[in-house]
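tokens incoming
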């Protein structure tokens, strides 16, 4: 590795120089330089340096005291930069490029536009107009919001005569509160917004209280890209779309009527206490439609109302980084797939944050994992990775923060119906295919150049096509359930067994329409409501069962391919349709089950009042079908004056805290509802 010396600087000057103070242009590209190689004492002698090229190195940040008072042009392309705030030490900088630094985002662009008042060109684009907006309009509105937050919630908390401890306490509470509650602009800029809000808040405290904020600094909290944002600035949102890249045009279809949906009354005149309580809670779960998006259109056609949307999953929160929210323990960014594309959507604003397309693919399933990646100098950082798969039998691996599909796994020769990651092994991915096999893969962890190695660990043999898979929450490394075209099966997936290809260990029997028991039926919905209760949906018309894993399956039982009877706890009242592949989902934290129907409605079941009884070993099956707590009716949507009809709800998913409900349809519309 090359080290920077006086001789090297003189040699790399353009033109070559005999004295450091005479150098105006310096090329230090392609030297494998790391941050520690930039010696501030040596650089402080470059008093007249105006152009500096540091491209194609290994820099992850800038030292804070390089002291280049006359620097005007800086090239940092192809490094590993993670932060740009140290660039404020170059106040005369006019041109800056840092392309191909995968950890930098749009938020960093906005930070340098604010910090560098003379900056004209950023990554080759003239940003003069946008930068003026960021420095003036954005700052003015944020300052107004921060001041209002202080006046309304905190100013009166301080007595006329206050102690240093009281000031310190108020400061800590105010900084946390203001960063959480003051919102502005699109979600993709929320990290920048929080950064600016903290800066403005500290200035306000210093001015109002005479508080020296340079001492006893609070740990800086990073902004969650999924915090509440207002929609005050459509212009900013438009500018955001222009700059993020990989955007395709999309249509927002607005409802002609927006009505509050109330619970559906149960049949019959008499109600049990449990049923009455469930219905009385319905008012609390009323939901309003927020957005109706047409963002998966083939060829971006506004006339496409045929593309089927199949899968959606909310992005997990990171333990650290821009998506950490100190108040709300949930994400509002959801990945959806259907047709040739995968989209990332901000549920609050309805903004399509990112879009990934493969022209020859039809995506059926997406899943998230969080990988701990080595970024530089053996330091580790967590990043969310999205796996997407479909008709081609190939799994695409996407590093979302870097906007980069870094690899693919040719998992099956036939289409992949569904994928899911292990909750305990971050690199373990299950793929269920039309080849009647479920494969377990170790996708590996990509290095800093995105090299990775995937390997197949296990193959589970099924008798029919697996449609839905679920890992048993109490033993996710030992048992997997699958709802298949020909029944519901369980496999032992423990990796300490030598057998790489395994048959199923059990097939479950369920009641049939004639009053008997059968194993042969299509199971197109499968999810755990809690550690023990399974919710499954079969092609028997209107049939959604809740049953117990622990009471149905003896994990100490011997032998494979056992037939066991599912211990039914309850049955949910649902649509009488015999249409298949309208799948269900659960929200375990809130004891909710969701399932769409053939008429565009979403059936919601709050089962919290039943769950306690089911946990009892003596818990008996509910004699009557449990009615839905609420049914969300499909609103009247019109496009080009024509009403959309024959809407099938293929999938319904809520975020972990049941704030948002994302509804995927057969007519290329993603509907987003919000709990009111």
């Amino acid at each position: 590795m090359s080290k920077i010396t006086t001789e090297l600087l003189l040699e790399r000057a353009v033109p070559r120089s005999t004295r450091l103070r005479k150098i105006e242009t310096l090329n230090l590209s392609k030297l494998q330089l790391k941050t520690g190689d930039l010696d501030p004492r040596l650089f402080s002698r470059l008093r007249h340096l105006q152009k500096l090229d540091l491209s194609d190195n290994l820099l992850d940040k800038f030292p804070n005291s390089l002291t280049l008072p006359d620097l005007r042009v800086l090239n940092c392309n192809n490094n590993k930069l993670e932060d740009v705030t140290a660039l404020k030490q170059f106040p005369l900088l006019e041109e800056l490029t840092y392309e191909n630094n995968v950890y930098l985002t749009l938020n960093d662009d906005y930070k340098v536009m604010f910090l560098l008042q003379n900056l004209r060109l950023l990554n080759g684009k003239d940003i003069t107009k946008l930068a003026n907006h960021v420095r003036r309009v954005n700052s003015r509105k944020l300052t107004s919001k921060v001041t209002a937050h202080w006046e309304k919630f905190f100013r009166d908390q301080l007595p006329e005569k206050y102690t240093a401890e009281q000031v310190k306490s108020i400061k800590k509470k105010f900084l946390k509160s203001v960063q959480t509650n003051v919102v502005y602009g699109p979600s993709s800029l929320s990290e920048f917004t929080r950064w600016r809000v903290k800066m403005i808040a500290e200035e306000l405290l210093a001015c109002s209280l005479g508080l020296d904020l340079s001492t006893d600094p609070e740990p800086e909290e990073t902004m969650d890209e999924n915090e509440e944002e207002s929609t005050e600035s459509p212009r900013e949102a438009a500018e955001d779309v222009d700059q993020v890249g990989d955007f395709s045009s999309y249509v927002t279809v607005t409802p002609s009527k927006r009505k509050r949906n109330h619970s559906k009354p149960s049949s019959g005149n008499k109600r049990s206490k449990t049923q009455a309580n469930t219905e009385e809670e319905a008012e609390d779960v009323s939901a309003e439609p927020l957005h109706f998006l047409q963002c998966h259109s083939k060829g971006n056609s506004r006339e496409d109302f045929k593309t089927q949307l199949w899968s959606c999953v909310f992005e997990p929160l990171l333990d650290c980084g821009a998506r950490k929210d100190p108040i709300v323990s949930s994400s509002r960014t959801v990945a959806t797939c259907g047709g040739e594309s995968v989209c990332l959507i901000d549920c609050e604003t309805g903004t399509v944050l990112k879009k990934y397309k493969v022209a020859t693919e039809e995506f059926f399933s997406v899943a998230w994992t969080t990988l701990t990646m080595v970024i530089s100098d053996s330091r580790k950082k967590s990043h969310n990775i999205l796996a997407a798969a479909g008709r081609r039998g190939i799994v695409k691996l996407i590093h979302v923060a870097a906007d980069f599909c870094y690899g693919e796994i040719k998992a099956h020769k036939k289409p992949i119906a569904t994928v899911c990651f292990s909750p305990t092994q971050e690199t373990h991915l299950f793929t269920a295919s039309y080849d009647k096999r479920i494969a377990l893969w170790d996708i590996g962890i990509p290095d800093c150049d995105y090299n990775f190695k995937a390997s197949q660990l296990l193959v589970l043999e099924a008798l029919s096509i697996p449609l839905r898979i679920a890992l048993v929450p109490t033993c996710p490394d030992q048992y997997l359930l699958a709802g298949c075209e020909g029944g519901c099966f369980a496999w032992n997936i423990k990796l300490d067994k030598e057998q790489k290809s395994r048959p199923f260990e059990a097939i479950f029997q369920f009641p049939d329409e004639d009053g008997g028991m059968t194993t042969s039926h299509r199971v197109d919905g499968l999810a755990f409501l809690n550690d023990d209760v399974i919710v499954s949906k079969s092609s028997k018309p209107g049939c959604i069962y809740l049953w117990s894993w622990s009471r149905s399956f003896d994990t100490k039982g011997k032998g494979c391919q056992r037939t066991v009877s599912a211990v039914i706890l309850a049955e949910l009242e649902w649509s009488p349709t015999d249409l298949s592949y309208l799948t269900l989902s659960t929200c375990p934290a809130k004891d909710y089950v969701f399932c769409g129907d053939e008429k565009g409605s979403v059936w919601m079941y709050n089962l919290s009042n039943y769950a306690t009884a089911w946990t009892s070993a003596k818990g008996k099956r509910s004699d009557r079908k449990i009615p839905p707590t609420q049914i969300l009716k499909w609103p009247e949507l019109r496009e080009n004056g024509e009403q959309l009809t024959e809407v099938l709800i293929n999938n319904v998913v809520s975020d972990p805290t049941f704030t948002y409900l994302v509804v995927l349809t057969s007519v290329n519309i993603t509907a987003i509802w919000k709990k009111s």
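note: The chain has three domains: 6-104, 130-159+166-209, 288-313+331-675.
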